[in-house]
């Protein structure tokens, strides 16, 4: 009985092994399924070359085109005036900015003028006798002489004898000494050279002012100037008087300036050239930071694309018969986000957005508006 059971189990084991072997052989010969090809969808544009204006972005700070730094050339006490000497104070043209106590020096000037007058009066009798032909003009000069006004110019010498006579009495040297003193006396009062505003006040009324001391700064707020640095490659394209678009940092305000000067030398370190832009607007203040957009030139037969579409090899992706390919291009100008290209044939279908892991030969499908509506 035991032998019969073992014999049956053996037969069953052999049969099971046969079917298992057959199953493994059948599965080994089955064809593996082919993985479907993945076609990537890309955004594309059709090229149409046109004239692209090249705009050079730059930035800088505004400074007053006309500014007047105040320095003392004499010494004395700062006398109070009708208008307080404070930053932000506005003045008219010719108005007194600073008046320094000059009573002592004024007396010195008056004494010198009196000596000149006396020295001329002392020779009048000799002039009447020896030079009667010139006596009238010197008499008229004395009558016009006013100690409280600027010393009038000496009469013209009509002969060498008259010149020797007048010079020998030290009248000419005394005259120029008086004019020198009057010139220095005028430095005790500083007047505004133009209508403007005081932006810096370094002294107060009643303080002692010393010779050579800086007193403040005065500017004309009607015209400002901005200095920007432009690549030397555009130096020959910029022209004086050319309009320039300006914006503040926030981009909320726009202004229009014009190129007033272009430096004739190139900075050896940065290889840039200085360009100065004039701008006028009542809302502008000195020190404001503005961005300028200078129109350099118009590039014909060119296109403008995003910088991230240009490959390191100076190539861009194009689509040809649903296959991705690359073509060489010629970059002309780079801005912060854009690049101007040439040598791109009209009608080329170029990729408009960056492709992750893109390569020449990749199967792609151009995205259309119809697909967008269907989705």
From TrEMBL:
<protein>
    <submittedName>
        <fullName>Multidrug efflux pump subunit AcrA (Membrane-fusion protein)</fullName>
    </submittedName>
</protein>
<dbReference type="GO" id="GO:1990281">
    <property type="term" value="C:efflux pump complex"/>
</dbReference>
<dbReference type="GO" id="GO:0015562">
    <property type="term" value="F:efflux transmembrane transporter activity"/>
</dbReference>
